[in-house]
Amino acid sequence: MAKTKIEKIASIEEEIKQxxxxxxxxxxxxxxxxxxxxxxxxxxxxxxxxxxxxxTIPLTEEQFxxxxxxxxxxxxxxRILDGxxxxxxxxxxxxxxxxxGRDNTQPAVKTAQTAQEGGAGGGAEQG
Length: 127
What we know:
The longest helix has 48 residues, at 5-52. The protein has helices spanning 5-52, 61-71, 75-95, 97-100, 106-118. α3 (75-95) packs antiparallel against α5 (106-118). It is 76% helix and 0% strand. By secondary structure, the protein is mainly α. The chain folds into 2 domains: 1-58; 59-127.
């Protein structure tokens, strides 16, 4: 009962479809996990800010944005962030490719640079 070449081709095409669907599912799962990780990170960090600075809780979004731009996006903060980013870069090979592929430190660097270079309007569009 040997398969004909046409049957073999059909079988391989079916396998290709299954693998493509599996690839799509895995990509979707990866994106979902990245969204969950980001949401978790944002919640933890914002909770930490509210814990340290409870007076920021009643601020409007615009007031909070102004506060962050005028206090965090400073040259001093930039130097601290650069030092921490350099530490992360130095330890990245030790941590492995799993965290390097997720680009954990880059969004904060981009946001600080945008806020510093672009002023008030530059950092708000990040997301």
